[in-house]
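Fig. S4 source data, part A: sequence.
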Amino acid sequence: MADKVLPGPVDSEACIREAVCVQTRKIFDSCRDSDCIEDLPVFPTTDSLPALLCASSIRPRGSELLHVGLHVEEISFNRGFYTVDVRYYYKIRGEAYPSALPVEGLAVFDKRVILFGSEGSAKQFSSVGNDCGSTSGLPVAVVDAVDPIALRMAICDAPLPQLTQEDIPTEIPEAIAAAFSCPVETCGQTRTWLVSLGQFSIVRLERNVQLLMPCYDYCMPEKECVGSPEDDPCTLFGRIRFPIEEFYPPDECPPCDAANYREVAQALS
């Protein structure tokens, strides 16, 4: 009997049991972006307004990606291609000076990309779900993104005249509003809070397809479930390695690469 095949790299001598037909999402096109978003307006919460009114400067304290809204639309003059409208919702945290009071607010960034998503006119119905309709013939847009880097913050003495009605989020989704302790003020501000962000993201278009794939066996876990340890705290502490690097300074400066880009950006802010 052949050795059992486990998840991971497969030996070339491993025997394929059968070819199976599976339905999954196939990626038809994707792109990656390193967006440097300069002077993005931040709409503060109501409790942050007093600190912003008397602030002479503001320092970044953090930024969090709350949600990404996606809308896919077909390009009529270019078959198989689609526009993907992406809207990022950010929770921005800062510290206003000279009062050193924490402030927070909502920032919104919109972008559009064009990707190939192929064509599909077949309607798909399923017994799963309560809706009575079929799935759309449009591809599915997916965004992978990390929390942005707050590069710089500034405070202006007047509202920005170039803000259009589309730039101001009139209807904030309920899930986004729940991420803030107070309501977000989107109009009537005498001063404008600006932030510059660095955003890494990947956008892709997928479709449900049926693919023929090699199958080795059913995947049964080999590892047993481990519950909470019953050791006392001192025994657990004794297993932790002594942090020698915390007591002695390093002999050389670590390289500035992608592994520590957040630390470098935070040091420059």
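Fig. S4 source data, part B ends here. The helical segments are 49-53, 174-177, 233-238, 261-268.
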